[in-house]
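# nightly structure sweep
# worker-07 picked up a monomer target from the shared queue
# config: single-sequence mode, recycle default, output format = structure tokens
# input follows
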Amino acid sequence: TNRFDNTTITGNITINNGTINVTDKAIKLSNKNSISKITINDGNIHGTTSAITGEYGTIEVNGGNISSDDGTTLYTKYNPITINDGTITSTNETTIRTPNNLTVYNGTITGKTAISNGDTVYFSDITVTINGGHIIGTEENGIDILGSSTTNKIVINGGIIEGNLSGVHTTQKIIIGNDNNNISIDSPVLIGHTDY
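# output follows
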């Protein structure tokens, strides 16, 4: 376990392998003048309250296992998150929370709620795009995007999205399929609570 307290690193960070296991936040993106992008290619990153968190910095996950216990696993407020692959888990909280653009191509995202825009519901021009992967809300919703903006949208082109309550819970616009005239009956798969 390595931790750099009060250390400022500027530029980009790439993690190709190894283990980070921290009580509290594993990686904190602290301000707009420090890390501009963090890329996770492989390895194990675990923080009890968060694995990667902060207001600034783009997050890209290409593989590995990223987890937290009692907090949001991935969070960034002003920059996008891209999930290309990997396993991202939160035991007791939302797994990915962002009021910014999020794109999922593959991987498994599991949490009480898997993906949410959280309490910052007043952001606009946000797009959540699901092209593949498996998104699981173990207690609540797979995807939970709320707000009063009319410019936010969820685009679902593939993958499996399931939740104990709803696969997708939203007040925003949902687009299913790249071409509304040719919607696949095989993908995406949306699964909600069926015991009514």
